[in-house]
Amino acid sequence: MKHAHEVAQSAQTPPAPRRTRPPRLDWTAIAPTIAQLRGQGCSTRETARRLGVNIKTLEAHLRRHRIRHAIPMDRPDQVRRTCLNCDTAFVADGRFLRLCPECRAMFS
């Protein structure tokens, strides 16, 4: 009987707010810069580095807002990659290419 009374009282109290502090980053101010850097072909890591943001924070923001890759692909056999040498984003002509064209030219 006592338990039912406690349940009834807890149902009457409003739920606590989920967010107790304001967000640390103003995403509305950062969003144009993110779009510009990703349009230039910067990877997520390079974009986070240039903005001074943790990479996991930026990845979570992009995933939450369903922002995908900025580089368009022309053919179905193309693959989006990040260069293993210089860490820039590029579209590879095959799935086994891991170096961007500039680094591939430099090493060959």
TrEMBL record:
GO terms for molecular function: DNA binding. InterPro entries: Sig_transdc_resp-reg_C-effctor (IPR016032), WH-like_DNA-bd_sf (IPR036388). Residues 1-24 are annotated as: Disordered. One of its GO terms (biological process) is regulation of DNA-templated transcription. This is Transcriptional regulator. It comes from Komagataeibacter swingsii.
